[in-house]
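In the current project phase, the collection of sequences with tokenised folds has grown. A sample record is quoted in full directly below:
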Amino acid sequence: MADATWLNVMLLLPVAGVALLLALPSLKEDAIRAVALVVTLAQFVIGGALYLRFDAATVGLQFATHIAWIPAWGVQYAIGLDGYNVLLVLLTVFLGPLVVAGAFSAIRKDLKFFYCMVLLLQFAMLGAFVAQDLFLFYLFWETMMIPMFLIIGIWGGERRIYATFKFVLYTAFGSILMLAAIIYLVYMLQSPSGELSFAFADLTRARLPRPVQLTLLSAFALSFAIKMPMVPLHTWLPQAHVEAPTAGSVILAGVLLKMGSYGFMKLGFPLFPDATRQLTPLFMSLAVVSIIYGACLALVQNDIKKIIAYSSISHLGYVMLGLISLDIIGIQGAVIQMVSHGLTAGGLFLMVGMIYERCHTRELAAYGGLARALPIYSVFFMVLTLASIGLPTTSGFTGEFLVLLGTATTGWRQYQDGAVFPLLMSAAAVAGVVLSALYMLRFAKSFLFGPEKLPHAPVMDLVWREKLILGAIVAAVFALGLFPDGPMRKSELAAQEFRALILVPRMPR
């Protein structure tokens, strides 16, 4: 079977899983869990094989499929892998079976419907990453909102209705602006013969007047910044994380938040290069504000879910900083940081869910001395905490170091030309590393050490299923931290193309 066919199989497997679950109404709970796990494991196997077969020396799309879908509108079913999405696709299929297995004991209500929503969300997220047509991308982008809304609204906490409506209002507002910008963009760039095209390759070759670029980039940026999220558009995130079930929090932190940064990298900045260069100081400032403000908020939280939620705002600020540095190392660091955050934040949310199942509270003050009561749990927690801080040999160090190196290189280069601001921003971003150590070590100290204090005692340590889930995440964290060369090679040509699309002048269309 051709590799392009395997990519389609990987994408459509969750749909087949949903169809199978719905076609067999009398399935027992264990069989429902097994079907969901087998589907996501099969996705991971196919995704891992495609990642290994992905040629880092080849420019452009690989394993591509192009089928005319709505010819009158110039819409195609166009998917493929490139250096922009290959690592994010791997992250998505890696976390899929871990999310499914992590929910085995946590979800008891409407089990079949829950796993149908998880599989549908997996399909929509992968579709958004591999889509190479703007119409198709937007379709997947909107589809993601439906299962996440239901996952939070049905299986969430006490204030789940408030959290879901806030999530939908924020994301819908951004999506409407992006839709208007897409329609205007496509009609502005239609060929002299009147033919329309939503293909990314066609759209990125065009050049629009700068005022038009500024308007359209603002619309795209609002949608992507909400999803990312960046300060001041972040307020929906903590509530969504707190009220979501553990599976929802892991998907949200692990993959969904990367949609915003991927949108900036694949569409927002390359489509509107003049506007991007003009607004670079604004995006750089927002990135640094997100880094520091998110870290400061995490430092004063007493809800353990909120600590990780606010830390996500800070860590994803580094992603924006790396992208807007327009330095090859910084751009690659941003991609590594996206993957690293997906692993560490996803793992920490899983661990919060595990302790919540046992003790039924998320208040940090209710815990203490877990290192003695739950030694295996504490070892995994400490490893993921240190990875989140950015300890050398972990993925967190690789991502943040490359972002800071790339940003400092750009800042120094521009400082030599008389511009001080980029260098000041790169120096300010280092404060986020210090603040990250403060809030995460405060968290670990209160949680793991000191007098033993548990809401319910005795508490059982990790079972074999939980050890396997966390062991896989820790192995991935160290693999990316110790051997970043392979993943960086996969994204190198895309980083070069991204930089060139913004900095190299294009001929007007």
Notes: The chain has one domain: 3-499. The chain has a mean pLDDT of 89.
